[in-house]
Design goal:
The chain is mainly α and 171 residues long. The protein has five helices and no strands. The two termini are 49 Å apart.
């Protein structure tokens, strides 16, 4: 898969993640879900967001960042390293958040969960915005420049010094 195709895929995932985050954000701006259907919807959104975010982060870690870090373009490699370093902190924060806020903990401390969720969703939205506006355009631009560059000519073949017969088959 080309870098451009991978970026398109990740950008689509960003849209899905933001839609789930918006839905979860609406839940945490209100009261604890009062009936079974509302509670099931709430937990379903939480689960979808967690699962899709984990899959997205793995794709970035295993596919996107390694290719960017290996780029011959120093600016892209350095920017990717900065983003990868930051991502470790965000990923750790989300993991801690997920471990802390289990269904029974949420039910016992709805206001605390709401505050924590608003914070993590805000960090996620900022990260997505930065990737979409800084990292992905840079990677696409580098790929476009690399694709437009003429292929390097193969090195000339040497048959030895003129007249010495090196490299010439004799029969």
């Amino acid at each position: 898969m080309t870098m451009r195709a991978e970026i398109e895929r990740l950008t689509t995932e960003h849209s899905r993640l933001l839609a789930l985050a918006t839905t979860l954000g609406r839940h945490v701006c209100g009261a604890f879900p009062a009936d079974r259907a509302a509670l099931d919807d709430f937990h379903g959104v939480r689960t979808q967001l967690r699962n899709q975010l984990i899959a997205h982060l793995k794709r970035e870690d295993w596919v996107l960042y390694p290719s960017m870090l290996a780029s011959d373009d120093a600016r892209l490699a350095a920017t990717a390293q900065d983003f990868a370093d930051e991502m470790g902190h965000i990923s750790e924060a989300f993991s801690a958040y997920s471990r802390q806020w289990l269904p029974e903990t949420i039910a016992a401390d709805w206001p605390g969960y709401c505050a924590a969720t608003k914070g993590i969703l805000g960090a996620l939205a900022q990260r997505i915005e930065r990737e979409d506006s800084e990292l992905y355009p840079l990677a696409s631009a580098v790929e476009a420049v690399d694709a437009a560059a003429p292929a390097a000519a193969p090195p000339p073949v040497s048959f030895g010094a003129a007249g010495d017969g090196a490299g010439v088959a004799r029969g």
